[in-house]
Amino acid sequence: MNFPENLKYTNDHEWIRLEGDSAYVGITDYAQDQLGEIVFVDVATVGETIPQNEIFGSIEAVKAVSDLLMPVDAKVLELNADLEDQPELVNSDPYGKGWILKVAVADASQLDKLLSADKYKTFVAE
């Protein structure tokens, strides 16, 4: 299992990586492993503002469908278009090519309340 140090994590198994004024959001290696083979990613439209902990879409795997929750208040800037034809990128590269959304973070201080890599690793081990 991979837990990159440069990310923040939620209890719902999303990750967020801040890059300047924007951030990338996806699901964790643990989450994709639990879900199994990802077959479809359905996400909100570009331009929509979504509050922290609100549903921004869903991810469908062979085993189950799971809601995706926004880690922080954010406006959706871009969807990962590659996932339309290759949803399995979430399985093979959850922290790289398998990102789901690019967002504009409304309040960067919300990131401070998310889990560090070490805290997330402890959370999933429980």
Can you give a write-up of this model?
- It is a single chain.
- The chain is of the alpha+beta class and 126 residues long.
- The chain contains 4 helices and 9 strands.
- The chain has helices at residues 29-35, 82-85, 89-92, 117-125, and strands spanning 8-9, 14-19, 22-27, 38-43, 49-50, 55-61, 65-69, 74-79, 101-105.
- The chain has a 6-stranded antiparallel sheet.
- A hairpin with a 3-residue loop joins strand 6 (55-61) and strand 7.
- The longest helix is centred in the last third of the chain and has 9 residues, at 117-125.
- The chain starts with 7 loop residues before the first strand and ends with a helix.
- The mean pLDDT is 95.
Give the topology, please.
Elements: E1 8-9, E2 14-19, E3 22-27, H1 29-35, E4 38-43, E5 49-50, E6 55-61, E7 65-69, E8 74-79, H2 82-85, H3 89-92, E9 101-105, H4 117-125
Antiparallel strand pairs: 1-2, 2-3, 3-9, 4-6, 5-8, 6-7, 8-9
> Strand percentage, roughly?
35-45%
Q: Approximately how much helix is present in the residues? A: 10-25%
Radius of gyration: 13 Å
Overall shape: it is globular
The total count of strands amounts to: 9
CA-CA gap between termini: 15 Å
Count of individual helical segments: 4
Question: What structural class do the secondary elements suggest?
Answer: alpha+beta
Query: Mean of the pLDDT scores?
Result: 95
The ordered H/E elements are EEEHEEEEEHHEH
Sheet with the most strands? 6 strands, antiparallel
Question: Low-confidence parts, pLDDT < 50 over ≥5 residues?
Answer: none
For the largest beta sheet, what order do the strands appear in spatially?
Answer: 1-2-3-9-8-5
